[in-house]
Amino acid sequence: MSVAIITGASKGLGRALAEALAARGWDLVLDARTEGVLTDAAVAVASYGTRVEAFPGDVTDAVHRAELVAAAGKLGGVDLVVSNASALGAEPLVRLEELALDGLRRALEVNVVAALGLVQEALPLLRASRVGAVIAVSSDAAAEAYETWGGYGASKAALDHLAAVLGAEEPGLRVWAVDPGDMGTDLYAAAVPDDEDPRPSPTSVVPAFLRLLDERPASGRYGAPALLEER
C-alpha cells in the first residue's frame, strides 16, 4: 500500500489531493494548522476505506514534521511527500514597499524552510520506496512578476529552485514543482479579497497531479493546465 504525507490538507488543493489518493487506495498522513477542519477532512478522506492519520500543527515546527514522518513510517513508509501548506506573507497582499519583513520571513519559513525540513526528515523512507516522489506546490507568481505578489512569489521561486536541486541530487526520486494554475481557494481569497471573478475548483486540477504519479516524468517544473491539455 502506498503512503503519502500531505501538508495543508484540511481544505482546498490539499484536501482534494487527499481524497483522490484515498480513492486510489493510498494511506495518508495529513497536516493542517486548524484541528477541527483537519478532523472533518480526515473523516471524509477515511470514508474511502484507507488508513488516515491527521496531525494538527505548524509545519515550521521540527517536532511536528518528525511526527508526520514517524506516522507514515508506521503505515509502511513514505512514497510521496506533498508540500502544499503555504503562507502569503500578508493578507491581503501588499506592494513590496509595504510588506512587513516578519511577513516575508513567515512566507519563507512555511513555503521553503519547512518544505525542505520535511523532505530531509522523510528522505531515508523516500529513498527506500520504489516510487519515491516529492511534489512542491508552486505558483505562477514564482515565475512571473505580478504586483503585490512579490513576497509570496519569491518564496515559491525559492521552493522551485530547491526542488530542482533536490531532483539533481536524488536521481532515484521524482521531484516535481507543480504550478496548479488559478484556483478558487481560501488562500487566494485571503490574498485578493476584492477579486470576485470565478475560478476553477481545486478538484479540477487534481488529474494533472495524478498524471505525474501515473507517468512519472523526469523531475522538473510542471504546470497543471498544460498537463491537463495534453491528455
TrEMBL record:
Which SUPFAM superfamilies did the record assign?
A: NAD(P)-binding Rossmann-fold domains
Record has Oxidoreductase as a keyword? yes
Question: Is Oxidoreductase a UniProt keyword of this protein?
Answer: yes
Name the InterPro entries for this protein. Answer: NAD(P)-bd_dom_sf, Sc_DH/Rdtase_CS, SDR_fam
One Pfam family in the UniProt entry: adh_short
What does the UniProt keyword field contain?
Oxidoreductase
Which family is annotated?
Belongs to the short-chain dehydrogenases/reductases (SDR) family.
Q: What is this protein called?
A: SDR family NAD(P)-dependent oxidoreductase
